[in-house]
C-alpha cells in the first residue's frame, strides 16, 4: 500500500525508537494546519509523559534526528511538542513514481480478502420505492464497488420484501374485487394461468387501497392476516397469485435500479428462505431459546449492559405466520451455509433495533460471530421542511420522477454555461443525464452515511463546491488538456514526473493520500471519506492548472512531466468516481 502518511510514520517512528520511545507514537497524519506544514506528528507529548521527560526537550531531540534525514525540507516545533513536517520534493516525487507504476492504481488492497454478502435493496413488492430505498441502493452499490476494489468478493442481494402482511393485503383485496379468479378456488391445486391478472400499475393502485381498508376496518385486517398465514402455509392458489406479483415487480424494479446504475447479483427475497424457517425454529427450540409470549414464540435478546430496552425477537406469531425478524434470521442461516464470511446490511438506521435482535439471535445459534454481521445504517434524505423527502405533490417518491427532476436541472445548468452562438451538442441529453445522476449520487454519498441531509437540488447540481458536477467538470478539463496537447492519456502517462512548483508538490501530496482514504472508507463503510479525497484531488488539480501552464508549456521536459501528472490525476479521479458509481462524460 502506497501511503505517504504510513511512510512518514515509519521514518518518524524509527526516530522515536532511536530515542528509546514507543515507535507507534511517531504516527504522522495530514496536518490540521496546512498553512504551516502538510504533515504533523503529535506523539511527542504522550512519549514525554510516558518517559517522564520535558516534552519540549524531547521534541528538540527528535527534531535533530529528523533534520539529519534527507526526507524533510523543514521540521518545526509548535506548542509543547508538536512536530510540523514538510517532506522534500524528492521524497514526494519518489513516492509518486511508485504510485504511478502501482498495478493497483494506489488503491488499498486487503491481504486477507473475504467473501461478503451486501444486502442493499429491500424494496417491498407492490409498495412504491421510497427515499430510504434510494439511499440504500446508492450507498450499497458504492460500498460494493469500494470493497471489491479492496479485494473482497462481494455479492449484492436485493432481498425483496415479499413475504409480509402486504402480500396478504393484496391477495385479500383482489379476492374481494375478482372472487371468481381461479386462484381463490380452494379445490384447485395446479394449472393456474400463466399470465398475471395484474400489472405493476394495477398493484400500485391496489396496494394503497388494500392497506387503507385494513387500517380502517378490523375485519379487512383480519382477512389480510388470514391470507398472509395461508400464503405462508402454502395454499397453491395464493402461491400462484403471489408468484405473479413477484414476476411483474421484478421486471419493473430491474428497470428502476438499472436507471440508477445499480445491479444485484442475487434477486432473492424474504420468501426464498421460507423453506428454512421450520428448521430454524427447531434449532432455536433445541437450544432452549424459544419462549412463549401471548401465544407467540419469541427469543429474548436483552442484556444487562443494554442502555435501553431491547424487546425480544418475534419468531412465530400467534396465528402461525412469520415476520420480518424470522425471515432475516433464516436468511442468515442460508448465508452462513453458503460460506459468506460477513453479512452487511445497508438499511435505514431507524431499523437498528431489529438488527440487534436478529444479530444477537444469530450469534446464539452460532451462525456468525456478532462482529461479522454489520448494520451499515443511514440517515434520512429530508425535504427543506426537515421531514423525509416527498415529491412536490406530497406523494412518495417515484424514482423515475426524481431522476427526471435532477436531469432537468442539470440540463438547465449546462444551458447556462453554453456560450452565445455555440451549437447545443447533439448528445446534450446524455450528458445532462450523467451530470444529473452524478449530482444526486455525490450529494448522497458525500454526507457521512449516518447523518440526515436535505434534498437541495440547486446545490447538488452546482458546478462549484463539493458536488458531483464539479468533479465531472474537473475530469473533463483534464481530458481537454490532453486534447489540446495533441496527446492521449495513455501517451501522457508515460512521461517522467518531476515536481518543481509548489502547486505540483501539493497535488502529488494529496494524491498520495488515496490509499489512506480508500482504506478508511472501506473499513468504516463510509463512502464520504472517498468523496472528500476526490474533492481534495480535484481542488489541488484546479490550483495546479491555474498556476502551471501544461499544454502551453515551452520546456519539453516540464510539459511532459505536467502532462504525466495530469494523467495520473485523471486516472485516480476516474478510479474513485467509478467506485462512487459515477460515470464521466467526454465533454460537458
Ligand atoms: N423491506 C424492508 C423495508 O422496506 C427493508 C429490508 C432490508 N433488508 C433486510 N435484510 N432486512 O423496510
Explain what you see:
Among the domains are: 4-87, Gyrase A, domain 2; 165-259, no CATH class; 399-579, Isoleucyl-tRNA Synthetase, Domain 1 (Orthogonal Bundle), CATH 1.10.730. Helix content is 53%, strand content 9%. The chain is built from 21 helices and 13 strands. Helix 12 links the parallel strand 10 (342-345) and strand 11. Residues 119, 122, 124, 159, 161, 328, 345, 347 line the site of arginine.
SS field, number of helical segments: 21
* Large-scale geometry: globular
Order of neighbouring strands in the sheet with most strands: 1-2-4-3
- Bound ligands: arginine
Q: Level of helix content?
A: 40-55%
Structural class: alpha/beta
Biggest sheet, in brief?
4 strands, antiparallel
Per DSSP, what share of the residues sits in E-state strands of 2 or more residues?
5-15%
State Rg. 29 Å
How do the helices and strands line up, and which of them pair or pack?
Layout: H1 4-18, E1 28-30, E2 39-41, H2 43-51, H3 55-68, E3 72-78, E4 82-87, H4 89-101, E5 115-119, H5 131-149, E6 153-157, H6 165-177, H7 200-216, H8 218-233, H9 236-260, H10 274-286, E7 290-293, E8 296-299, E9 313-316, H11 324-337, E10 342-345, H12 352-364, E11 373-375, E12 381-382, H13 399-417, H14 428-445, E13 453-454, H15 457-460, H16 468-484, H17 489-493, H18 502-511, H19 514-524, H20 527-547, H21 556-579
Parallel strand pairs: 5-6, 5-10, 10-11, 12-13
Antiparallel strand pairs: 1-2, 2-4, 3-4, 7-8, 8-9
This protein binds arginine (ARG).
Arginine binds next to loops.
Amino acid at each position: 500500500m502506497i501511503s505517504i502518511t504510513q511512510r512518514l510514520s515509519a521514518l518518524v517512528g524509527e526516530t522515536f525508537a532511536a530515542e528509546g520511545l514507543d515507535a507507534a507514537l511517531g504516527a504522522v497524519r495530514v496536518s490540521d494546519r496546512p498553512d504551516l506544514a502538510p504533515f504533523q506528528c503529535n506523539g511527542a507529548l504522550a512519549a514525554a509523559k510516558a518517559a517522564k521527560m520535558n516534552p519540549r526537550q524531547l521534541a528538540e531531540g527528535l527534531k535533530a534526528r529528523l533534520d539529519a534525514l534527507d526526507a524533510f525540507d523543514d521540521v518545526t516545533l509548535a506548542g509543547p511538542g508538536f512536530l510540523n513536517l514538510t517532506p522534500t520534493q524528492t521524497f514526494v516525487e519518489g513516492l509518486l513514481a511508485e504510485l504511478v507504476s502501482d498495478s493497483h492504481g494506489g488503491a488499498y488492497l486487503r491481504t486477507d480478502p473475504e467473501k461478503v454478502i451486501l444486502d442493499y435493496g429491500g424494496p417491498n413488492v407492490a409498495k412504491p420505492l421510497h427515499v430510504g430505498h434510494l439511499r440504500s441502493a446508492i450507498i450499497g452499490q458504492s460500498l460494493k464497488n469500494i470493497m471489491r476494489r479492496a479485494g473482497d468478493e462481494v455479492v449484492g442481494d436485493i432481498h425483496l420484501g415479499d413475504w409480509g402482511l402486504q402480500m396478504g393485503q393484496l391477495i385479500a383485496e383482489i379476492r374481494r374485487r375478482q372472487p371468481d379468479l381461479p386462484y381463490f378456488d380452494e379445490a384447485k391445486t395446479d394449472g393456474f394461468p400463466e399470465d398475471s391478472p395484474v400489472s405493476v400499475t394495477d398493484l400500485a393502485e391496489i396496494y394503497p387501497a388494500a392497506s387503507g381498508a385494513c387500517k380502517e376496518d378490523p375485519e379487512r385486517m383480519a382477512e389480510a392476516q388470514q391470507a398472509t398465514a395461508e400464503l405462508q402455509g402454502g395454499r397453491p392458489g395464493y402461491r400462484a397469485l403471489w408468484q405473479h406479483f413477484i414476476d411483474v415487480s421484478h421486471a419493473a424494479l430491474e428497470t428502476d435500479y438499472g436507471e440508477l446504475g445499480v445491479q444485484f447479483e442475487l434477486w432473492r427475497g424474504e420468501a426464498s428462505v421460507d423453506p428454512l424457517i421450520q428448521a430454524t425454529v427447531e434449532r432455536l427450540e433445541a437450544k432452549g431459546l424459544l419462549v412463549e409470549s401471548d401465544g407467540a414464540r419469541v427469543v429474548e435478546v436483552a442484556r444487562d449492559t443494554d442502555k435501553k430496552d431491547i424487546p425480544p425477537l418475534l419468531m412465530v406469531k400467534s396465528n402461525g405466520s412469520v415476520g420480518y425478524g424470522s425471515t432475516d434470521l433464516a436468511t442468515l442461516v442460508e448465508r452462513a451455509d453458503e460460506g459468506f464470511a460477513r453479512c452487511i446490511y445497508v438499511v435505514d438506521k431507524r431499523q437498528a433495533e431489529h438488527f440487534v435482535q436478529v444479530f444477537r439471535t444469530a450469534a446464539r445459534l452460532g451462525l456468525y460471530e456478532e462482529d461479522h454481521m454489520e448494520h451499515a445504517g443511514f440517515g434520512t434524505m429530508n425535504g427543506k421542511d426537515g421531514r423525509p423527502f416527498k415529491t412536490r405533490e406530497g406523494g412518495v417518491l417515484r424514482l423515475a420522477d426524481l431522476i427526471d427532476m435532477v436531469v432537468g436541472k442539470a440540463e438547465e445548468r449546462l444551458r447556462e454555461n453554453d456560450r452565445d452562438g455555440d451549437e447545443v451538442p447533439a448528445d446534450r441529453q446524455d450528458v445532462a443525464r450523467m451530470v444529473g445522476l452524478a449530482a444526486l449520487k455525490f450529494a448522497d454519498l458525500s454526507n457521512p452515511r449516518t447523518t440526515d441531509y436535505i434534498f437541495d437540488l440547486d446545490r447538488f447540481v452546482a458546478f462549484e463546491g463539493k458536488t458531483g458536477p464539479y468533479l465531472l467538470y474537473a475530469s473533463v478539463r483534464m481530458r481537454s488538456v490532453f486534447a489540446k496537447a495533441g496527446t492521449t492519456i495513455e501517451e501522457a502517462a508515460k512521461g517522467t514526473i518531476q515536481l518543481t512548483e509548489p502547486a505540483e508538490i501539493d497535488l502529488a501530496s494529496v494524491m498520495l493520500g488515496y490509499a489512506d482514504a480508500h482504506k478508511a472508507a472501506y473499513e468504516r463503510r463510509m463512502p464520504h471519506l472517498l468523496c472528500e479525497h476526490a474533492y481534495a484531488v480535484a481542488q489541488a488539480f484546479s490550483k495546479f492548472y491555474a498556476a502551471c501552464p501544461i499544454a502551453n508549456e515551452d520546456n519539453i521536459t516540464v510539459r511532459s512531466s505536467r502532462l504525466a501528472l495530469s494523467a495520473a490525476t485523471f486516472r485516480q479521479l476516474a478510479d474513485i468516481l467509478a467506485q462512487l458509481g459515477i460515470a464521466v462524460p467526454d465533454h460537458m
